[in-house]
Design a protein that fits this description.
By secondary structure, this protein is of the alpha+beta class. The protein is built from 13 helices and 18 strands.
């Protein structure tokens, strides 16, 4: 998205305010407010400049309140060894002459210059009046400026549903409308269709009931198409797998039955994705490239987190073993997967049935990587690490609890898919190691107190498997 393109699209959508005027009003406020948000990806590096990719008035600024939809690019100073970076963020900003006390926590700031001078700017997703307007836009498909709204005509979306923000903020913002629907607003925007819309749509069309089907969505069409938000049924009364696991640990209860059922649900989702979307086969070149990517992430993390460095050589053997198998002719099936599967991405209904949610993948990774076919073991490894996380977060640490859940999950997966993930130990170890390395970097940057949790796995995974002769190449999956 070039700066020239940004200016053209902003001028066309935002009317008289224009890009330079809006920037004059918003830049001082965003410099202070944006880096403090939980979903801001560039923490630790100052923002050097802002540019408007697009701006659309959902309600005129002169209204009480006004509502602006913005795509803003935050240019940041490069980190060591990298070039300049800039992420595009979706902002929905309310504009008022004064802010009611009930919206005090939504304050962005009072503009001192430009067309918004003297007006209060705030996060519109915390204002029920403005979130109601957003739902109305989703109920009535069509275009407005750079935005396009679409929906499933077979689903009834009632009017007047009141929104409340979902308490657990991650890399996006979610609104629950009347305990009936949930709207995920993607904060960090990438060109292209977001997997959290693409994959649930494909699963719904294939008849998979394990994933809530999208009922409405909206996107930007300029300068490049990109998914901005998805409305899905809210599974009222369901509990997420992370909380269920913690409750089981706290009560001293076994969780293997739940883990087994979750393994079955995961295999069902994988099976449907394999039948609904194109698959691939990873051969020598792709496997060696995969191992090289994992090795590079390890080396980068070892430089950033000194605690990891003593284990780097042992961890590298996991990726070397994967590359050696590829060189020897081993091949693996690849397909579209969840990409960031863990206990928090699963919900268990009151009848005991599991659903899988949040198919965006790891938002920090490029969209092209998140949408390419990968071995299903990557998802399995993420869930296995999540069982370990749950067990490690409880005192006293119970390795038997984690081992039992991990084994039960794999057995449930095998019961549906016909293939036990543990039957490919080199591949599983490589993906578990890569995930643990990712966790080390994340915790070191965001939650240092949690760093001992992935470091315990690092110590375990840095011990190589006994050397064994590579198996003969398998025939490519049909």
């Amino acid at each position: 998205m070039s700066k020239a393109a940004s200016t053209r699209n902003t001028s066309r959508s935002a009317g008289a305010s224009g890009p330079l005027g809006l920037l004059a009003s918003l830049t001082p406020l965003l410099h202070e407010w944006l880096p403090r948000q939980r979903w801001f990806a560039g923490k630790g590096r100052p923002v050097s400049a802002f540019s408007l990719v697009s701006a659309t008035e959902l309600l005129p600024v002169g209204a009480a309140p006004g509502l602006l939809h913005l795509l803003v690019r935050a240019q940041q100073e490069p980190s060591a060894g990298s070039g300049p970076t800039g992420d595009c963020y979706q902002l929905l900003l309310g504009v008022r002459t004064s802010l009611p006390p009930r919206l005090a926590t939504a304050l962005v700031g009072r503009a001192a210059a430009g067309p918004l001078a003297g007006l209060v700017v705030y996060d519109a997703l915390l204002d029920p009046r403005l979130t109601a307007l957003l739902l109305e836009r989703l109920r009535a498909p069509g275009r407005l400026g750079a935005l396009r709204f679409d929906r499933d005509p077979a689903v009834v979306i009632p009017a007047g549903l009141v929104a409340r923000p979902l308490g657990a903020e991650q890399s996006n913002t979610s609104l629950v409308y009347g305990d009936t629907f949930i709207l995920k607003v993607f904060r960090r925007v990438h060109p292209g269709s977001n997997p959290d819309l693409e994959l649930p749509l494909a699963l719904a069309q294939a008849g998979c009931a394990r994933v809530p089907a999208p009922v409405a969505w909206y996107e930007t069409t300029e300068p490049e198409p990109a998914t901005l938000g998805v409305l899905q049924p809210f599974l009222f009364g369901s509990e997420d797998g992370w909380q269920l696991a913690l409750h089981a640990l706290a009560d001293g209860h076994d969780f293997t039955a739940g883990a087994h059922a979750l393994g079955r649900a995961t295999a069902e989702v994988h099976g449907t994705l394999a039948s609904a979307l194109p698959t691939a086969v990873l051969r020598k070149r792709q496997i060696q490239h995969l191992a090289a990517e994992m090795t590079e992430r390890l080396e980068t993390t070892a430089r950033a987190v000194p605690a990891l460095a003593p284990y780097a050589a042992g961890l590298r053997t996991a990726f070397d073993a994967l590359a050696d198998l590829g060189h020897a002719g081993r091949v693996w099936a690849a397909q579209r997967i969840h990409g960031d599967l863990h206990l928090g991405q699963s919900l268990r209904a009151r009848d005991g049935e599991w659903s899988v949610i949040d198919f965006e993948g790891e938002p920090a990774r490029p969209l092209a990587e998140r949408t390419r076919p990968q071995p299903v073991v990557r998802d399995v490894a993420g869930m296995l690490r999540s069982f370990d996380y749950a067990a490690r977060s409880h005192r006293p640490w119970s390795p038997q609890w984690a081992t039992g859940c991990r084994d039960a999950y794999c057995e449930g997966y095998a019961a549906v898919s016909g293939a036990d993930p543990r039957a490919e130990p080199e591949l599983l170890r490589a993906y578990e190691t890569d995930k643990a390395v990712y966790e080390v970097l994340y915790e070191a940057r965001n939650r240092p107190d949690w760093l001992p949790v992935p470091m315990a796995a690092i110590k375990r995974l840095s011990t190589p498997f006994p050397t064994r002769a590579p198996k003969l190449p398998r025939r490519p999956p049909q």
